[in-house]
From TrEMBL:
It holds the Pfam family DDE_Tnp_4. This is DDE Tnp4 domain-containing protein. The keyword Metal-binding applies. It comes from Rhamnusium bicolor. InterPro entries: HARBI1_dom.
Length: 152
């Protein structure tokens, strides 16, 4: 994530702020991850204001939703319980196939939920696999801090 190889879409306005400066796309992590420009995390638990507590709840809820979806996939497809031992190109295809199968099964069961907002097909991106990325343990940049504060 630190080498900008993920081919993320260009920054865009935040909902409710159509005239404001564009906001870059980002990933959400828990407290174990460093705060970076493309990785938002909750505020530390000491000295939280009500505003920061609400932000922490909302950002953690988004992360938990992804973890829950992955947990459902793992329970259906045991191959996800351990590292997949095959070529990286094949892993990419396997993961995509499992996502399609998961959605197909949910649709057949009548439990598929359609998000209220869907990106047009042109904005769907493929995220390449990035190997051997070492976490950045330095202090977060002012830009990353300002981005977190703006989301808050």
């Amino acid at each position: 994530m630190t080498t900008h190889q993920l081919n993320l879409p260009e920054p865009s306005s935040l909902p409710g702020e159509p005239d404001s400066e564009a906001f870059p796309y980002y990933f959400v992590g828990d407290e174990a991850f460093p705060l970076m420009e493309n990785l938002m995390r909750p505020y530390p638990r000491r000295q939280l204001t009500d505003e920061k507590r609400i932000y922490n709840y909302r950002i953690s809820r988004g992360r938990r939703s992804v973890e829950c979806a992955f947990g459902m996939m793992v329970s259906k497809f045991r191959v996800l319980e351990t590292p997949i031992s095959c070529k990286i190109d094949n892993v990419d295809v396997i993961i995509k196939a499992l996502c399609v199968l998961h959605n197909f099964v949910r649709k057949q069961d009548g439990t598929l939920s359609i998000p209220a907002f869907e990106h047009p097909r042109e904005t769907i991106i493929e995220i390449p696999i990035v190997n051997n990325v070492q976490p950045d343990r330095s202090r977060p940049s002012n830009q990353a801090i300002n981005m977190g504060n703006r989301l808050c």
